[in-house]
Each structure stands twice: as structure tokens, then as C-alpha cells.
Design goal:
The complex is a heterodimer of chains A (about 280) and B (about 400). Helices cover about 35% and strands about 20% of the residues of chain A. Chain A has about 280 residues and is an alpha/beta fold. In chain A, strands 4-5-6-1-7-8 form a six-stranded mixed β-sheet, with helices on both faces. Chain A has a four-stranded antiparallel β-sheet with strand order 10-11-9-12, with helices on one face. In chain A, strands 2-3 form a two-stranded antiparallel ribbon. In chain B, helix 4 (about 65-75) packs across helix 6 (about 120-140) and helix 8 packs antiparallel against helix 13. In chain B, strands 2-1-3-4 form a four-stranded mixed β-sheet, sandwiched between helices. The mean pLDDT of chain B is about 85. Chain B is mostly helical. Chain B is elongated and about 105 Å long. The chains are: A alpha/beta (about 280), B mainly alpha (about 400).
Chain lengths: ~280, ~400
Amino acid sequence: MSFRVDTGEIVGLVGRNGAGKTTTMRSIMGIVRPDQGSVSWREHPVGDADRLRFGYMPEERGLYPQMPVVAQVAYFARLHGMPAESASRAALGWVERLGLGDRGEEKLVALSHGNQQRVQLAVALVHDPELLVLDEPFSGLDPEAVDSLSSQLRDQAAGGKAILFSSHQLELVERICKRVVIVDRGRMLACGSLRELRERFPAQLRVRVDAPPDWASSIIGVKVVRSDEDGVVLVVEPGVDPQAVLRAAQAHGPVEHFGFETAGLVDLYRQMVLG
Amino acid sequence: MTDWAVIRLVAGREISDRVHGRLIRVMTVATALLVVAGVTIPSLIKGSSAPTRIGLVGSPAQVLAPTITRAAAAAKVKVALSDIADQAEARTLITSGKLDVALSAAADSAAVEVKSSLSDTVRAVLQSVLDDAHFRATLAQAGIPAAKVLPALQPVPVTTTVLQPKPADQTARYIAAIAAGLLMYVSLALYGGAVATGVAQEKTSRTAEVLLAAVRPRQLLTGKVLGIGSIGLGQLAIAAAAGLIANAIVSSTKIPSSVVTLLPSFLVCFLAGFLLYAFAFAAAGAMVSRQEEVQMVTTPIALPLLIGYLLVYAALGSPNATWLKVLSFFPPLTATLMPARIALGHVAPWELPLAALIMIASIIGMARLASRIYARGLIHSGPRLSLRAALQLSKGRA
């Protein structure tokens, strides 16, 4: 597995459960040591000092339940090397920015799940890290919170941070990521922008014919990817004339729709991971 | 950031987190009150020890009053004498609890009546007075002048030379030994347990993962142990100070200065014992998968602590026994057994540096082992680790 995250870039890490997303992130954060391979930052192997400039949000959220919000965020800021005074200031700033200004003195446990999630994000951001590693940051968020976190991430990237996050919500990844890393069983299947990934696969043709859906399966050089109420999605092998496919469709019945589709991340993911 | 800066931060959080808790304040006050009570109550009890009330029935007994008073004073027995007219009245007084002893005497016999028992010291006083009176009466009857015989009855002076003198403050030393053993046992179990619970909390609440993104396991572990240790040390110091102040005010128990000078060595013993045990407790805490399992994993660690405490009582009985001496150098027992031996005053000067060396070496060894188990345990998800599995993991690359 080899990929890079550049400053100002949001990279999405996708793959099924157990594919190795969390292990990858833990390796970057130095929580586990990879069996092999290395993690580099700014052209040198990552050391403890570099990691203090990273921000991390683990998949299983964890903070001190009995510790007041601002004090907690400030504590983590200090663990990342900030002096006491600026740590408190930054903690207060982030707590206010995330809409928890009036809850700052309360214990974490008194907050709702969504608000605890915000505190967790504040902990990852408070020391103004250069790299953000977020494991499933969107899981368990309501749509409004998803939007707010998305725009936070975009702001952070625009501000020059490098961001790596994992998610199962592929539409979301497609929307905010510049590049995507697809992993499976500890290996990287693909890495690149959506357009780059698309180029690795033949174009997909969507055809809707008023006929039984198995009309296409007999055409040589054509593979049925799936079929739904909007017709069938076909992959046409190189050298096969799409016009021939259209004629074959017309032979089965009136063609209601015929056109190439822009494959989304979901389609690409299906083709790569699920085969 | 330097190691120390991180460790100070972690320790500082532990301290402020705990100092702000209500439990710790209650505990501190309770411990201090307990020590104050332990110092003052014995002196209050001693001050109220009542004299034995002796009723002298009939004139033959009543004439003995001055002799009884003198003999009682010589034997350091407190008595209060009163004259009683007859036996019947004496019995009423005894059964109603207004009198302890009724003494009546005849020419060559005497009778004592008590409610249920007669103390040996009071009996000895009365016996000697009666013997003396009887002897003088017999001499007078025989016409022998007492002045001629009595010199012959003077006790032969016996010079006693004590080869191994008991320290004058032996009782105080016994109490100090028991108190030190108990205090060590309770506080090590308490604060060691606090370390295990704290580690388990960080693990099960997944806070550890966020922490480990910024700090090394070794820093986290050291900070936690030192933070909780200083709270324990502080609490012990407060309790000791409260005890000394209370003693200065009441002052009747007279804690010998020799015992007071032991206090610093007790605090050192606590610190050493705490470090040894706290690292073990921390490793245990990192092995659990749920908070409820802490009790189970810490029991094997608390056991040697308990054994060490129980051995203190063996040390009271035979402070010079070789096997106890040897055991007090066995690191898990040193923290409880050594303070007791120091209190009893049978520790040779060379023993303490040796014990300190063994302790330091084993603390270092324990810290190394514990920090490997701790580092692996914290990020291990799934069921509770067995000791074997934890050791196996700790052998891998950390």
C-alpha cells in the first residue's frame, strides 16, 4: 500500500470493514507499528515530533467523560506541545467555533452524542495540525452535522492542511475528496482522482428497452453490470461498436434510453472491490 | 516536548482530576480523623481508668487502711478505701456496683468478697498487707519486739543487669509497627487500585487511543503512576501531620521521638512500594476489556501485599527471626514488612541500603515489563488478555 496526501488536499480512504483502513491510520499516528512499510512526512520517516503536528480522530471516539469540555480540549492541546496559555485560548476558540460556547464548563458526559463528537473534532483540530487523520468522522452524524463537518474539512484543506479520512459513505467521499484510496484485505486496489479511476474502467452504457432484462446477455463483447428499473448497465469491450448494441436493443423492442454513464465512486468501488 | 514535560502534564491532570473529586477529600479527612482518633482516644481512656473501690468491713479491717494505701501506692495500684459497717451492707453495695471489693479481717484469717473477679494486683496488695499485720500480731503475742526481727526480714537487695534491654518505648514501637504495616497495606492497595482503575478507564473509554496519538505509552504510564503516587504520598503526609499535631495537643500518650523520626523512612517505603505495585497494577488495568474486570485482574497483585501485611504480626512476635529478615528483602513484601521492622528497631544499618538497592532494581524491572504489557494492552481490543497472552504480546516488538 503506498499513497500520499498533499497539503491542501482531502483524500478519502474507502474499503469494506476489516480492509485495513483503521490499521493504516493507526500506523500513520504511530499507535501501531506496521509489519512492513513506512510512513513518511515531508520526505523523512515520521517521528514523534512530527506526530505532534498531526491531528487524530479515532473510529471509536474516546475522551475523559468526567472532564470539563474546554479543560479537556486544552489538555490535549498541551499534550501536542502548546504552551498553557495559548492552549486554553485555542481550546476556548474551537469550542465556540463548533457551537459549544455555552457548554464549555460542563463535563463531557453531560453532552449529547453529537456534541461529544464535536468536542472530539475540536481535540483533533485544536493544535492547528498540518495533517488531519480522521477515522470515520461522519459516522453517527445527522445530515446537518454531516454538512457542517464537510464544510469544516473543506475550510481546513483550503487553509493548507492535508486531510485523510475514511468513510463508508461513498457519495460523501466523492463529494469532498480530491483523491480516493480504495483498500481491500490490507492491499491498496486503487488510488487517484475519480477521473483517474474512471479511466481504468471501460465506459458504462445504460440502455432502457421495453423488453425482458436478459435481452443483452446474448450479445458478444458486452457484459451486464447490473439491471434495475431504469434499464441495464452494460460494459462494452474495446472493439465492439456501441451502435451494434443499439441495433440489438432495437431488435428486442422500443429503446427508451441509450447513453454512456459517468461512473460514480459507488460503481467504481463495486467493480474493484466486489468484482 | 521532552519526556519530563509530557510526564508532568499527564501527572498534573491525574492530580487535578482527583483533587477536584469529592471522594478524595472525604478520604483525606477521614484518614486524618482516624489517625487523630488513634492518637487521642487511648490517652482519653487511660485518663479515665477508675480506682478499685475497697470497702473495709469492721474495725479489724479498718485499722489496715493506712497500710493498704501505702502498699497500693508502692504497687502503683489505684484504690479508694471506705469504711463499711457490716457484711450485709457491703454485699448490697457490691451487687449494686457501688463497691468492687469488701475486705473483712479477724485475728488469723481474712475474707474478701467481690462481684465476679478480683484483679491479681489488688489481691497481691491485700495479701501482703494482711500477711504483714498477721506477722506483727504474732510477734507481739510472743513478746518478741518487732524491732529485733524486722531487719532480718528486709529483702536481700538483688542487682538486676539487663543484657538485652527492651527499648523504653517498646509499646509505642509495637503500635508504630502495626500502624505502619496497616497504613502501607491500605494505601498501597488503595492507590495501586486507583492506578489500575484509571488505566482501565482510559482503555475502555478509548481515550487511550487519542492520547497515544500524541504521547508514548511509557510517558503516559509514568505520568499516571507519579500523579497518583503523589496524591497518596500527600494524603499520608497530611494524616501523619494531623497525628503529630493531635499528639502535641493531647501530649499524654507521649509518642517517643524515636518513633517520630521513623516517619520519613515510612514515606520512603511507601514511595518505593507504591512504584513497584503501581506499575504492576497499571499493566493489569491495561489487560481488561471491561471496567468490571479490574477487580479480577488485580487480585493476584493485591495478594502479596496482604501477605506482607499479615507478616507484620509475625514480626511483632519474633522480630529477630531470620526468615522474617530474609522475607523483608523480597521486593513484594518489603513495603509492608520493612517499615514494621524499622519501627521495632531491629534493623541493622547495612540492611536499609541493601533493601533500597533491591527495591530500585525491581522497580526498574517491573516498570520495563509493565510498560510493554501496558503498551500492547491499551490498543488490544477484544476479550480480556490472560497474563500469558499479555506476556506473549509484550515479547513482540513494542
